[in-house]
Design brief:
2 domains, D-Amino Acid Oxidase, Chain A, domain 2, FAD/NAD(P)-binding domain, eight-stranded mixed beta sheet, alpha/beta, 18 strands, binds flavin-adenine dinucleotide
Length: 363
């Protein structure tokens, strides 16, 4: 592709749109981004997300390929964050997984899923079983009612909002243009223009199979709470996590509801999230509720991400579901490799679905 030709258009300034713009910029391409939201009223799922990077923990409920994309992406985030114009909180101190004594069966099921993953890829650092002394050594403020847990050492998290802001700053510094309050559809572009559709749930108009899965999170300010790493509470009905960010902020999440309803958080969800946080650490009692937020995870029927070419120069990247931050670098690298460089090595290596036949548009 000629880097001096007309800019590549990207629809959507959420996670995939901004990361794609930045990575195209790193490779010398010019980009124009169209974002439906106005600058101070973000609509992206990425703005709501907890941004935990948990390749092994997520393998309990995801395809093995998501774990592999996650392992690749953990390494890539380290490189990408160093390229950005502003610092981003990026922590790699592992995940703590806890359960109540009555939820032993759930813990057994979780461990057996993790064991399958570890057998499939022995290079992944195994989890460590924790007794109460082990929990105390990592997170002493955890409730004394929680007696057992697991430590997954090679997991982490980043600050979603800092990352989006740093990507935006970097993209503008690369000389790209971002047009806010500019809702676009693929039909607005001719076939000869290069376009990447990164609209998440907003891409439904051109990819009807995309659906939204509602997720609710609370943001708390809790200077009394000393939890320092992402902590998950296993539960057969309400698995919940706490993601500690900088400046005593904590994201408690997340519900997962098959609905595209973006109305405010329900009372039931807020009670479940708050009671899980309080169960893990009673110091949350004095937390201040900064925000309750709702987002739609863009999802395809197979729950995997996919890259789709629907005309000679029009591509779509979607379906990052609950793993956007975990896997985005692998998906974006594979998209650039395929669409711009004409290669499919990464997509093959990580089994990233690419639909290269124009006839597959109904999938
Ligand atoms: C509650 C919740 C918790 C989550 N937690 C995690 C987590 O811990 N770890 C993790 O890895 N992932 C998590 N995710 C998932 C992650 O946020 C998503 O996978 C990711 O944001 C998807 O990125 P995207 O760019 O496809 O969509 P988005 O981030 O939603 O961005 C799409 C953008 O396109 C814009 N747009 C829409 N329509 C148009 C249009 N017509 N024209 C122009 N622009 C348009 C939108 O305004 C938006 O800015 C979570 C998601 C939610 C909702």
């Amino acid at each position: 592709m000629n880097t001096r030709a007309a800019p590549i258009s990207i629809l959507g300034a959420g996670l995939t749109g901004l990361l794609l713009a930045h990575q195209l910029g790193v490779r010398g391409h010019r980009v124009r981004i169209y974002e439906a939201a106005s600058e101070n009223k973000p609509l992206a799922a990425a703005h709501v997300a907890a941004a935990m990077l948990a390749p092994l923990a997520e393998s309990a409920i995801s395809h093995f390929r998501i774990t592999q994309m996650g392992m690749y992406s953990m390494q890539r985030w380290t490189e990408i964050i160093l390229q950005l114009a502003a610092p981003v909180f990026f922590q790699k101190t592992g995940t703590l997984v806890l359960w109540h004594p009555q939820d032993q069966a759930e813990a057994k099921r979780f461990c057996s899923q993790l064991n399958q993953t570890l057998q499939q890829d022995p290079s992944i650092a195994p989890y460590q079983k924790l007794n109460r002394a082990g929990i105390d050594a990592l997170e002493p403020s955890v409730s004394s009612k929680l007696l057992e847990g697991l430590y997954l050492p090679h997991e982490g998290q980043l600050d979603n909002r800092q990352l989006l802001a740093a990507l935006l700053q970097s993209v503008l510094a690369q000389g790209h243009e971002l047009l806010w309050a500019s809702s676009k559809d693929l039909a607005d572009f001719s076939d000869s223009e290069w376009v990447f559709d990164c609209r998440g749930i907003g891409a439904k108009t051109n990819w009807p199979a995309v659906r939204g899965v509602r997720g609710e999170v609370l943001r708390l300010f809790a200077p009394e709470v000393s939890l320092s790493r992402p902590t998950r509470l296993l539960h057969p009905k309400y698995p919940i996590y706490i993601a500690p960010k900088e400046n005593y902020q904590f994201v408690i999440g997340a519900t997962e509801i098959e609905s595209e309803d973006l109305s405010p958080m329900s009372l039931r969800s807020s009670m479940e999230l708050m009671s899980a946080a309080y169960t893990i650490d009673s110091a949350f009692a004095e937390a201040r509720i900064l925000e309750s937020a709702v987002g739609l995870r863009p999802t395809l029927s197979h729950h995997d991400p996919a890259i789709r070419q629907i005309s000679e120069h029009h591509y779509q990247i979607n379906g990052l579901y609950r793993h956007g931050f975990l896997i985005a670098p692998s998906v974006i690298d594979a998209a650039i490799e395929w669409a711009i460089e004409g290669k499919t090595e990464l997509a093959k290596q990580y089994q990233i679905r690419i639909y290269e036949d124009y006839a597959s548009v109904s999938q």
